[in-house]
Amino acid sequence: MSREKVLLFLVLAVVLTTAVSSVARAETLGCYYADAVAALDPPIYLRLSEASGVALGTAVVNDGTLGASLGMIWGTQQTNGVLYANSEPNSGISSVNPDVMIGGKNCIGLENGNTGAQIIPYAINASNSMGFNVWDNPNDPIDKVAALDEENETYSLFFKTKDNNQNPRMITSHPGNSNRFDLVMTYGKFCVATAAANTTNWLADSTVAFNDGLWHHLVVIRNGDDAANAQLYVDGQQIALTATSSTPSYMTLGTSPQAGSTDAGYGLRIGTHGNKNRGWNGYLDEIAMWGRALTPEEAGGLYQAAVSVPEPSSLALLLAMFFGGLAVSRRVS
User: Fold this and answer.
1) CB distance 157 to 209 below 8 Å
2) What is the overall mean pLDDT for the chain?
3) Least CB-packed of 67, 141, 278, 290 within 10 Å?
């Protein structure tokens, strides 16, 4: 066999291998990152892949282990259960996909056309969004999500923002939880706020700002009853946190509702404070929550799942070996 034909066989083998591998991935994995998250059994996993134009009060799909039993809506409720008018986040927004780079790598673990949500604080644009409501019981809009009232918890998500304001809320836990765990960004830096029943409130602040208008992957872990051992990972790298037991007035935490603080008498919320103040301003996607602390390997693995793909399938490898062997045998003959 001529050299040109051998090369042709090898090229065909590579093309077929890639095609079969891609088909296998699409049929069995769908989204490699989503499968990696699901493998860790989060009670809450919000892909936020709803189409654009979702209506206020529409249920949010939960792909976590709580499934449809989790109550969650697009929009924000007042303490009386009435929805704030025009308070739903914008849905169907272009989000992390293979064309997006995070940490210098393309997010090939996400599918093309992946969408997320945009949140604009109510105070900035009253016709736009405040965030999401989350609860266990759809009949009780401030019911606790019991699976997330633990000393060890983890939040994971993608975010993008240019906000440089003080304390926009990314995640606000239920004010009645025995173990509060809030995630706030202040002047572009993250603040992890925790509190346990009858203990001092704790804060842990990052020294690095991430309000650069680029997509980032985040994992934040609560280890124990205060923030002293909290861990923050951004784009697969652990970010140093400085912990303190002193709590400024704007970050009041505790176990009873307090007007004007994060304890405004609401349930778990994403992208909003509990009233019309200090809302998140930016984009969120792929929000997952666990009632346990992920290990460093698990936390790092989530970022790797976003920027990598599985190994080629066994069938693809066999086909490559077959065509390669066939080309060699014909060349010898």
Assistant:
1) no
2) 79
3) 67
